[in-house]
Amino acid sequence: xxxxxxxxxxxxxxxxxxxxxxxxxxxxxxxxxxxxxxxxxxxxxxxxxxxxxxxxxxxxxxxxxxxxxxxxxxxxxxxxxxxxxxxxxxxxxxxxxxxxxxxxxxxxxxxxxxxxxxxxxxxxxxxxxxxxxxxxxxxxxxxxxxxxxxxxxxxxxxxxxxxxxxxxxxxxxxxxxxxxxxxxxxxxxxxxxxxxxxxxxxxxxxxxxxxxxxxxxxxxxxxxxxxxxxxxxxxxxxxxxxxxxxxxxxxxxxxxxxxxxxxxxxxxxxxxxxxxxxx
Length: 279
Hints:
Oligomer: single chain
Shape: globular
Distance between the termini: 40 Å
C-alpha cells in the first residue's frame, strides 16, 4: 500500500490523496511511530497504517506552514554533482568519470515552506529529486535498488557559491550546508504513488519565472546506479537521503543569484511543491 508521510510539528503524519492528515502514532497505536525517523525504519507498519486510512477519521487538512522536513534527522545525507549533462555543459565542466558525491550536513534540512536566509550575494538554487532510503544495506545490486527506497521527495540544494569555491579544490559540503540551505518535502511519497519514478518532470521558478525545467530521466547516473555505487562503499541506513543532482538553469550560469524577497518554487511531478521565501 502506498503512503505519503509528513512531519507536522515534529510528529509523523500520513496524508491521503485529498490532503487530509492522520497522526501516525494514533492510527497505528504505536507511540514510537510519532517520530518520522522511526516510521521510515518500520515500512511494513507504515504501509499497514496507510491501508487503514479509508476507515479512519482525519484530523484536518494538511497545512504546509506546519510541516517540517519529512526526514528530520538522517544519519547520512549525500548529494551528487554534475549529474545532468545540461548542467555540466552550462558549468563548463566535463561529466565526471565516476559519480561526484559530496555531503550536505543534515543540520541544514528544513521544511517545505521555510524561509531561506541569504548570508551572501551569491546564493543559488538547485531543484533535485531526493531519494529516501528504506531498508538499508551494503553492496546493493542496481536491479534490487528500488526495493531499498522508502520513497521520494523534493529537495532544494541551496548553494552559497562564494563559500563553495572559496578554496581549491572546492568544498561543496560547507557551501551547501548553511542553516536552512536544505529545504525538503513536502512529503515522502512511496514510489508506487508517483507513476514512473525514473521519469518525473521537475522544475524550479523564481518569482514565477521558470528557470529549470527537465525530467529525472535525464540523470546521467540514475537512482539504482547511485544506490549500488554508494552501498558498495558504505552501509546505507533507513532514512538516509540522496540528493540526485540538478538540471541546467541555475543562477550561477548567468549571474542571477537569489535576492531578498524572491520566492522560490520547486516542483516535481507526483511529489508536490516547495515554496521558500528568501530573506
